[in-house]
Amino acid sequence: MNPLVLWFHKIGSPPTFYRIAGAFAPWLFGIAVLLGALALYGGLVLAPRDYQQGDAYRIIFVHVPCAWMGLFAYGFMAVNAFIALVWRIKLSEILAMASAPVGAAFTFITLVTGSLWGKPMWGTWWTWDARLTSELVLLFLYLGVIGLYHAIEDRRQAARAASFLALIGIINVPIVHFSVNWWNTLHQAQTVRLLGPSKISGDMIWPLLTMALATHLWFFASLLARARVGLLELEGGKDWARDVALAAAPGDNGTRS
Amino acid sequence: MTDFFAMGGYGTYIWPSYAVFLIVLAIDAIAPRLRRKRVLAELRGKLKRRQARETTP
Q1: Mutate to test the interface with A, among B21, B24, B27, B51 (most CBs of A within 10 A)
Q2: For A197-247, how does the pLDDT look when each residue is reduced to its tens digit (9 = 90+)?
Q3: Which of A39, A107, A111, B57 is the most buried if burial means most Cβ atoms within 10 Å?
Protein backbone atom coordinates (compact mmCIF):
# COMPACT_ATOMS: atom_id res chain seq x y z
CA MET A 1 0.00 0.00 0.00
CA ASN A 2 1.28 3.48 -0.68
CA PRO A 3 2.26 5.56 2.35
CA LEU A 4 -0.62 8.06 2.00
CA VAL A 5 -3.29 5.36 2.00
CA LEU A 6 -1.53 3.66 4.89
CA TRP A 7 -1.50 6.92 6.85
CA PHE A 8 -5.17 7.44 6.10
CA HIS A 9 -6.06 3.99 7.37
CA LYS A 10 -4.06 4.54 10.52
CA ILE A 11 -5.73 7.90 11.28
CA GLY A 12 -9.11 6.41 10.44
CA SER A 13 -8.80 3.54 12.88
CA PRO A 14 -11.00 4.34 15.91
CA PRO A 15 -8.40 4.00 18.71
CA THR A 16 -5.87 6.18 16.86
CA PHE A 17 -8.45 8.80 15.96
CA TYR A 18 -9.74 8.77 19.52
CA ARG A 19 -6.27 9.49 20.87
CA ILE A 20 -5.34 12.17 18.31
CA ALA A 21 -8.72 13.92 18.62
CA GLY A 22 -8.32 13.94 22.38
CA ALA A 23 -4.98 15.71 22.02
CA PHE A 24 -6.25 18.32 19.53
CA ALA A 25 -9.73 19.19 20.86
CA PRO A 26 -8.70 21.13 24.02
CA TRP A 27 -6.27 23.28 22.01
CA LEU A 28 -8.88 24.04 19.38
CA PHE A 29 -11.41 24.96 22.06
CA GLY A 30 -8.86 27.18 23.83
CA ILE A 31 -7.73 29.05 20.71
CA ALA A 32 -11.34 29.45 19.57
CA VAL A 33 -12.32 31.03 22.91
CA LEU A 34 -9.33 33.41 22.86
CA LEU A 35 -9.96 34.49 19.27
CA GLY A 36 -13.68 34.81 19.98
CA ALA A 37 -13.02 37.07 22.97
CA LEU A 38 -10.70 39.22 20.86
CA ALA A 39 -13.34 39.46 18.13
CA LEU A 40 -16.04 40.40 20.66
CA TYR A 41 -13.82 43.17 22.01
CA GLY A 42 -13.12 44.42 18.51
CA GLY A 43 -16.75 44.23 17.48
CA LEU A 44 -18.39 45.66 20.58
CA VAL A 45 -15.80 48.22 21.67
CA LEU A 46 -13.35 49.14 18.94
CA ALA A 47 -15.49 49.07 15.77
CA PRO A 48 -17.20 52.37 14.99
CA ARG A 49 -20.93 52.90 14.79
CA ASP A 50 -22.56 52.26 11.40
CA TYR A 51 -23.74 55.43 9.69
CA GLN A 52 -27.11 53.90 8.77
CA GLN A 53 -27.87 51.30 11.42
CA GLY A 54 -26.18 52.90 14.43
CA ASP A 55 -25.04 50.31 16.98
CA ALA A 56 -27.64 47.74 15.91
CA TYR A 57 -25.32 46.46 13.16
CA ARG A 58 -23.02 45.01 15.88
CA ILE A 59 -25.20 41.88 15.81
CA ILE A 60 -23.33 41.12 12.55
CA PHE A 61 -20.31 39.89 14.54
CA VAL A 62 -22.23 36.87 15.81
CA HIS A 63 -24.94 36.55 13.15
CA VAL A 64 -22.79 36.29 10.02
CA PRO A 65 -20.03 33.96 11.30
CA CYS A 66 -22.72 31.61 12.67
CA ALA A 67 -24.58 31.71 9.34
CA TRP A 68 -21.36 30.78 7.52
CA MET A 69 -20.79 27.94 9.96
CA GLY A 70 -24.32 26.65 9.45
CA LEU A 71 -23.53 26.17 5.77
CA PHE A 72 -19.94 25.01 6.33
CA ALA A 73 -21.07 22.35 8.81
CA TYR A 74 -23.66 21.14 6.32
CA GLY A 75 -21.04 20.85 3.60
CA PHE A 76 -18.74 18.96 5.94
CA MET A 77 -21.58 16.67 6.99
CA ALA A 78 -22.58 15.99 3.36
CA VAL A 79 -19.02 15.13 2.28
CA ASN A 80 -18.68 12.67 5.16
CA ALA A 81 -22.16 11.31 4.51
CA PHE A 82 -21.14 10.65 0.91
CA ILE A 83 -17.95 8.85 1.96
CA ALA A 84 -19.95 6.90 4.56
CA LEU A 85 -22.48 5.75 1.97
CA VAL A 86 -20.01 4.89 -0.80
CA TRP A 87 -17.06 3.43 1.10
CA ARG A 88 -18.79 2.56 4.39
CA ILE A 89 -16.01 4.08 6.46
CA LYS A 90 -16.97 3.98 10.12
CA LEU A 91 -15.16 7.21 10.99
CA SER A 92 -17.00 9.12 8.25
CA GLU A 93 -20.34 7.98 9.61
CA ILE A 94 -19.32 9.21 13.05
CA LEU A 95 -17.99 12.54 11.70
CA ALA A 96 -21.11 13.18 9.61
CA MET A 97 -23.36 12.53 12.59
CA ALA A 98 -21.14 14.55 14.94
CA SER A 99 -21.32 17.66 12.74
CA ALA A 100 -25.15 17.73 12.67
CA PRO A 101 -25.73 19.02 16.24
CA VAL A 102 -22.94 21.63 15.91
CA GLY A 103 -24.39 22.86 12.61
CA ALA A 104 -27.86 22.92 14.15
CA ALA A 105 -26.55 25.02 17.05
CA PHE A 106 -24.98 27.56 14.68
CA THR A 107 -28.10 27.69 12.49
CA PHE A 108 -30.26 28.21 15.57
CA ILE A 109 -28.05 31.13 16.70
CA THR A 110 -28.27 32.59 13.18
CA LEU A 111 -32.07 32.51 13.21
CA VAL A 112 -32.43 33.98 16.71
CA THR A 113 -29.86 36.76 16.24
CA GLY A 114 -31.31 37.51 12.82
CA SER A 115 -34.72 37.89 14.39
CA LEU A 116 -33.28 40.18 17.08
CA TRP A 117 -31.65 42.25 14.32
CA GLY A 118 -34.76 42.26 12.15
CA LYS A 119 -37.03 43.77 14.79
CA PRO A 120 -35.27 47.19 15.07
CA MET A 121 -34.19 47.34 11.39
CA TRP A 122 -37.16 45.87 9.49
CA GLY A 123 -39.83 46.36 12.14
CA THR A 124 -40.62 42.64 12.35
CA TRP A 125 -39.21 39.59 14.14
CA TRP A 126 -39.92 37.29 11.25
CA THR A 127 -40.97 37.42 7.61
CA TRP A 128 -41.20 34.68 4.98
CA ASP A 129 -38.29 36.15 3.07
CA ALA A 130 -36.36 33.69 0.85
CA ARG A 131 -33.18 33.84 2.96
CA LEU A 132 -35.03 33.44 6.25
CA THR A 133 -37.20 30.61 5.00
CA SER A 134 -34.31 28.63 3.48
CA GLU A 135 -32.31 29.11 6.68
CA LEU A 136 -35.24 27.69 8.66
CA VAL A 137 -35.35 24.73 6.27
CA LEU A 138 -31.62 24.25 6.97
CA LEU A 139 -32.36 23.97 10.70
CA PHE A 140 -35.16 21.47 10.01
CA LEU A 141 -32.81 19.40 7.84
CA TYR A 142 -30.29 19.25 10.68
CA LEU A 143 -33.04 18.27 13.12
CA GLY A 144 -34.27 15.65 10.65
CA VAL A 145 -30.79 14.11 10.36
CA ILE A 146 -30.36 14.07 14.15
CA GLY A 147 -33.85 12.65 14.67
CA LEU A 148 -33.45 9.91 12.07
CA TYR A 149 -30.07 8.94 13.51
CA HIS A 150 -31.61 8.45 16.92
CA ALA A 151 -34.78 6.75 15.69
CA ILE A 152 -33.01 3.61 14.40
CA GLU A 153 -31.65 1.07 16.85
CA ASP A 154 -28.62 -0.19 14.90
CA ARG A 155 -26.01 2.62 15.03
CA ARG A 156 -24.46 1.92 11.64
CA GLN A 157 -27.75 1.53 9.81
CA ALA A 158 -28.97 4.68 11.52
CA ALA A 159 -25.88 6.58 10.35
CA ARG A 160 -26.39 5.45 6.76
CA ALA A 161 -30.07 6.39 6.71
CA ALA A 162 -29.33 9.80 8.21
CA SER A 163 -26.41 10.27 5.78
CA PHE A 164 -28.80 9.68 2.91
CA LEU A 165 -31.13 12.38 4.21
CA ALA A 166 -28.16 14.73 4.68
CA LEU A 167 -27.16 14.20 1.03
CA ILE A 168 -30.64 14.93 -0.27
CA GLY A 169 -30.76 18.10 1.80
CA ILE A 170 -27.59 19.49 0.21
CA ILE A 171 -29.84 21.04 -2.45
CA ASN A 172 -30.82 23.62 0.17
CA VAL A 173 -27.26 24.90 0.66
CA PRO A 174 -26.95 26.84 -2.64
CA ILE A 175 -30.52 28.07 -2.13
CA VAL A 176 -29.54 29.61 1.22
CA HIS A 177 -26.38 31.10 -0.24
CA PHE A 178 -27.85 32.60 -3.41
CA SER A 179 -31.32 33.45 -2.08
CA VAL A 180 -30.39 37.12 -1.58
CA ASN A 181 -29.41 37.38 -5.26
CA TRP A 182 -32.22 35.30 -6.74
CA TRP A 183 -35.07 36.92 -4.83
CA ASN A 184 -34.89 40.60 -4.03
CA THR A 185 -36.57 40.75 -0.63
CA LEU A 186 -35.95 42.15 2.81
CA HIS A 187 -32.66 40.46 3.73
CA GLN A 188 -29.66 42.50 2.60
CA ALA A 189 -27.25 41.18 -0.02
CA GLN A 190 -23.75 39.90 0.64
CA THR A 191 -21.39 42.34 2.30
CA VAL A 192 -18.24 40.26 2.53
CA ARG A 193 -16.95 38.65 -0.66
CA LEU A 194 -14.20 36.18 -1.31
CA LEU A 195 -13.89 37.40 -4.89
CA GLY A 196 -13.82 41.12 -5.38
CA PRO A 197 -13.87 43.93 -2.84
CA SER A 198 -16.00 43.65 0.30
CA LYS A 199 -18.44 46.45 1.05
CA ILE A 200 -17.34 46.97 4.63
CA SER A 201 -14.70 49.11 6.32
CA GLY A 202 -11.47 47.67 7.73
CA ASP A 203 -12.16 48.28 11.43
CA MET A 204 -15.43 46.40 11.08
CA ILE A 205 -14.14 43.53 9.00
CA TRP A 206 -11.28 42.31 11.18
CA PRO A 207 -13.54 41.41 14.15
CA LEU A 208 -15.90 39.71 11.72
CA LEU A 209 -13.16 37.59 10.12
CA THR A 210 -11.57 36.85 13.51
CA MET A 211 -14.93 35.61 14.76
CA ALA A 212 -15.30 33.53 11.58
CA LEU A 213 -11.94 31.88 12.30
CA ALA A 214 -12.92 31.34 15.95
CA THR A 215 -16.21 29.67 15.01
CA HIS A 216 -14.43 27.40 12.51
CA LEU A 217 -11.99 26.25 15.20
CA TRP A 218 -14.91 25.83 17.60
CA PHE A 219 -16.71 23.66 15.07
CA PHE A 220 -13.75 21.31 14.75
CA ALA A 221 -13.20 21.24 18.51
CA SER A 222 -16.82 20.32 19.16
CA LEU A 223 -16.78 17.87 16.24
CA LEU A 224 -13.74 16.02 17.60
CA ALA A 225 -15.19 15.90 21.12
CA ARG A 226 -18.45 14.50 19.76
CA ALA A 227 -16.75 12.04 17.39
CA ARG A 228 -14.71 10.62 20.29
CA VAL A 229 -17.84 9.86 22.29
CA GLY A 230 -19.50 8.43 19.19
CA LEU A 231 -16.58 6.06 18.59
CA LEU A 232 -16.52 5.02 22.23
CA GLU A 233 -20.22 4.19 22.08
CA LEU A 234 -19.96 2.37 18.74
CA GLU A 235 -16.92 0.32 19.73
CA GLY A 236 -17.96 -0.31 23.33
CA GLY A 237 -17.19 -4.04 23.04
CA LYS A 238 -13.64 -3.59 21.74
CA ASP A 239 -10.49 -3.81 23.83
CA TRP A 240 -9.41 -0.22 23.32
CA ALA A 241 -12.77 1.15 24.50
CA ARG A 242 -12.61 -1.11 27.55
CA ASP A 243 -9.15 0.21 28.34
CA VAL A 244 -10.40 3.80 28.08
CA ALA A 245 -13.35 3.04 30.35
CA LEU A 246 -11.16 1.36 32.97
CA ALA A 247 -8.48 4.07 32.79
CA ALA A 248 -10.96 6.89 33.35
CA ALA A 249 -11.70 7.29 37.05
CA PRO A 250 -15.39 7.91 37.93
CA GLY A 251 -14.66 11.57 38.74
CA ASP A 252 -12.81 12.14 35.46
CA ASN A 253 -13.79 15.37 33.73
CA GLY A 254 -12.97 14.14 30.26
CA THR A 255 -9.80 16.12 29.59
CA ARG A 256 -7.51 13.12 29.74
CA SER A 257 -7.53 10.63 26.92
CA MET B 1 -20.11 52.59 30.81
CA THR B 2 -23.88 53.13 30.75
CA ASP B 3 -23.47 54.39 27.20
CA PHE B 4 -21.71 51.17 26.31
CA PHE B 5 -24.53 49.00 27.67
CA ALA B 6 -27.20 51.18 26.07
CA MET B 7 -25.60 50.64 22.62
CA GLY B 8 -27.24 53.76 21.21
CA GLY B 9 -30.68 52.50 22.24
CA TYR B 10 -30.20 49.08 20.62
CA GLY B 11 -28.92 47.34 23.75
CA THR B 12 -32.16 45.41 24.17
CA TYR B 13 -31.49 43.71 20.83
CA ILE B 14 -27.70 43.43 20.91
CA TRP B 15 -27.17 41.90 24.36
CA PRO B 16 -29.74 39.12 23.96
CA SER B 17 -28.07 38.26 20.61
CA TYR B 18 -24.68 37.88 22.26
CA ALA B 19 -26.26 36.02 25.20
CA VAL B 20 -27.88 33.48 22.85
CA PHE B 21 -24.58 33.04 21.02
CA LEU B 22 -22.65 32.37 24.25
CA ILE B 23 -25.30 30.19 25.91
CA VAL B 24 -25.92 27.95 22.89
CA LEU B 25 -22.19 27.43 22.33
CA ALA B 26 -21.67 26.72 26.04
CA ILE B 27 -24.33 23.99 25.81
CA ASP B 28 -22.62 22.72 22.65
CA ALA B 29 -19.35 22.38 24.57
CA ILE B 30 -20.84 20.77 27.68
CA ALA B 31 -23.13 18.25 25.91
CA PRO B 32 -20.39 15.90 24.60
CA ARG B 33 -18.60 15.97 27.97
CA LEU B 34 -21.75 14.83 29.78
CA ARG B 35 -22.41 12.16 27.18
CA ARG B 36 -18.83 10.93 27.46
CA LYS B 37 -19.28 10.49 31.22
CA ARG B 38 -22.51 8.57 30.69
CA VAL B 39 -21.03 6.30 28.00
CA LEU B 40 -17.97 5.51 30.13
CA ALA B 41 -20.12 4.78 33.18
CA GLU B 42 -22.28 2.43 31.10
CA LEU B 43 -19.18 0.69 29.74
CA ARG B 44 -17.76 0.23 33.22
CA GLY B 45 -21.09 -1.14 34.45
CA LYS B 46 -21.17 -3.65 31.62
CA LEU B 47 -17.61 -4.77 32.34
CA LYS B 48 -18.35 -5.15 36.05
CA ARG B 49 -21.45 -7.25 35.35
CA ARG B 50 -19.52 -9.49 33.00
CA GLN B 51 -16.74 -9.91 35.53
CA ALA B 52 -19.26 -10.81 38.25
CA ARG B 53 -20.80 -13.42 35.94
CA GLU B 54 -17.44 -14.98 35.23
CA THR B 55 -16.30 -15.17 38.85
CA THR B 56 -19.47 -16.68 40.30
CA PRO B 57 -19.74 -20.41 39.60
Answers
A1: B21
A2: 667 777 888 999 999 999 999 999 999 999 999 999 999 888 899 999 888
A3: A107
